[in-house]
Amino acid sequence: MKKVLFYALSVLFLFSILLLSACAGDSSGDGGEGGGDKPITLYSPETPDLTKELAQKYEELYGQKVNVDYAGTNVLVNKMMAEKGNPQADVWYGGGGILPFEAAVDKDIITSYIPKDAEDWEVVENGIKMKHQDGYYVGTEMFVLGFSYNTELVSEEEAPKTWEDLLDPKWEGKIQFSNPAASGTATLMVLSYMMEHGEEAGWEYFQKLAAQANSIPDSGSGPTKGVAMGEAHIGIGFDFMAYEHQANGETVDFVVPEKTPILVNPITLVKDAPNPEGGKKFMDFMLEKEAQQILADWYHIPINPDVESKTPLSLDKIKEHAVDLDIDWVNENYDRIRNEWKNKIN
Description:
The chain is of the alpha/beta class and 346 residues long. The protein has 3 domains: 1-26; 40-142 and 262-315, D-Maltodextrin-Binding Protein, domain 2, CATH 3.40.190.10; 143-261 and 325-344, 3-Layer(aba) Sandwich (D-Maltodextrin-Binding Protein, domain 2), CATH 3.40.190.10. The chain has 12 helices and 13 strands. Strands 1, 2, 3, 4, 7, 8, 9, 10, 11, 12 and 13 form an 11-stranded mixed sheet that branches. A hairpin with a 2-residue loop joins β5 and β6 (128-129). α5 (184-197) packs across α6. The termini are far apart.
């Protein structure tokens, strides 16, 4: 009898261990309330509070955990390069427009996926590239490169309206723009000017522009902050940067130059992602009204026509200002121009 009881207890004990092991195995990829789904890892250089809000909304709607890894665009790209063969991210959102994403195609660190809401988009609409021709990224919102200005120091009438206006002697020592060797925002500025005017004229222009500047910070948002603090009269940056400061009660406004780069800010699926299905679902979410409303609340120009912009800008108002970007030329010269900046501009 004792032997029977001993064997019965032994079997029960082993069964319990196997059951616990199975449960542990099932929960190892659990995303909290995601019904057993693995967490999604999001790489993003966008404002941490913005990406946190997007992640929280996704978790609220779909019950799947989103872990956000924040760093600058170049840092994240280098990280994804180092992780090739063993990627840690599922999805990459944001980078100051399409240029880093175009370069990432050649670096073989992203793969193709187009959310259903973007399947019918043209690759280029109104002179603006909306998605990659082979599906390697899709736009989530619009960014306009232009001029912020301090309304206590500069009137709307005298604010510069073209890139050439920045060379007016009255702006000497009153301008800030970010460092193209460090900032994707500034790299866009340099490449777009050179595409339109040629490299020789471009380097001449930026030598003169650098002489007008009182500071060239590494951060893409630095010049707009300088304007808000009264450290500069004019700052070169994206539209949402100025409108964020304005919404906080600071004396900042924004000018869309006559011709300027207008880009979508993309999202993409990381190649060989550990959770590709989760990454695709998050990409779908980013074009839905809930995510688009969050972007609009952060003063980005939403790409979803059912969501209203909270700034004076909309696609209809900005499309006539867009300059054509030769993406092949960008891909061929992106790294070279950034490196040459260090030697050519003092």
